[in-house]
Amino acid sequence: MSERGFRAIFKELSVLALPIVISQGAYAFMIFTDRYFMAQISAQHISASMSGGVTSFVTLSLFLGIISYANAMVAQFSGAGRYSQCSKVVTQGLVLSVAAFPILLLLTFPVTELFRWVGHAEELVALESAYYKVLIYGGVFSLAKAALSSFFSGIGRSWVVMVCDVTGVLINIALSYALVFGHWGLPAMGITGAALGTVIATAITLILFLGFYFRPAIAQLYGVAQSWMIDMGILRKFVRYGFPSGLESFMNVVTFNLFMLMFQNYGTREGAAMAIVFNWDLMSFISMIGLHIAVMSLAGRYIGSGESQNLNRVIAAGFSIALTVAAIFAITFATLAASLVGVFDTGSEDFEQISVLAEAMMLGLACYVIADGINLVASGVLRGAGDTRWLMFASVSVHWAMLVAQVFIIKIWQLGPMVSWWTFVAMLVCLAGLYLSRLRWGAWRSPDRLAKLVSEHH
């Protein structure tokens, strides 16, 4: 076992994180451009793409959370030198992806009624449902891609993730542009075209990942040809460690989605303002998810190799990067709020009112982007260390407490949108404090617990 210095770990984390940050940033830009295309049609379209897109993520989130735990498992097996097990993790992830597909199709029927149940106008429901259904029909591609992406992140070849994802994003933007507005001989399909462009581009990205996965250098070292079998031991690890991550993700995005749908009951202007703010939020949050993935991978690798004494330096390096990036975003959001909101000017008569609310909400975004950075680094370390059950209970509890508060604020007391918004901001700040305390004093640091986790990967 060897103890590494802060500079060495900072460099290792940076090299691992940068390609994933670029990859995630490209994905955020893709969502951003989709919403921008919708803004060129109407405020209702941008609102529908927000609610329909988030609801599709809610539907996929349980399975994505489970399958994405492949990152930590692959990192732990790789750290332990058990390379053939890494490819078996991918196989089990692909099996779970295919098994999830019929469940996703069944869920489209009750979920589309949710838009109507929360009181949205029929015109908005039609747009939301069209966007949502196409994304879910192509959901199996997203799940399978997550398994392969987690493999390459886990073995430290994050540049593969960057190449595949950035290529997919560029294809997505071009396809969505053509299918939304009817260019290059393709039909003008509006919001349905935006969703279809995303599904086709995701399928192409999956093919690119498979191309790298079957390259001789990877296939031979990781025993890909021998990995095509059901491995109950790895499937049990997916259930034991991945299921809490998936359930946490699912429950959290459910609360977020319900909050967003309730917030839209303030009116179309308020819904459009929220969509604009969350578009900019995506640019910061999804980019920092790249750091979260890198931290989880590096922590898992050190634990798998029995070098857990390096975890404190992984934490310090992660926070150094996250807080620097978050501070840049926070200053940008606070000082350039009017210009950033103005990018989505629909030219409608009520955009001035949308702009006033959105600019005020951007200040809240500037506050909680710091909390996001803390949360993503802390949860990355805890996931890499297998502390997924505590994360699930803590995060779900705080999110659902926020949702109950929102029911009172919006539905019962009928307070204004800014009261609702600052309550959401406060929730994220509280969560950051909770994660920091767990990171510092949590039971996950117990040598016995870490030794048990290491023994499972040797």
TrEMBL record:
InterPro entries tied to this protein:
MATE_fam (IPR002528), MATE_MdtK (IPR050222), MdtK-like (IPR048279)
* Keyword set, alphabetical order: Antiport, Cell membrane, Ion transport, Membrane, Transmembrane, Transmembrane helix, Transport
A GO molecular-function descriptor: antiporter activity
How is this protein situated with respect to the membrane?
Multi-pass membrane protein
Subcellular localization, per the record?
Answer: Cell inner membrane
Supply one GO CC term from the record.
Answer: plasma membrane
Q: Please give the Pfam families that the UniProt record associates with this protein.
A: MatE
Segments traversing the membrane: 12-32, 52-72, 93-111, 131-152, 159-179, 191-214, 238-262, 282-303, 315-344, 356-378, 390-413, 419-436
Q: Which GO terms describe its biological process?
A: monoatomic ion transport
Query: Per its UniProt record, what PANTHER family does this chain match?
Result: FMN_FAD EXPORTER YEEO-RELATED, MULTIDRUG RESISTANCE PROTEIN NORM-RELATED
Q: What is this protein called?
A: Multidrug-efflux transporter
What organism is the protein native to?
Answer: Aequoribacter fuscus
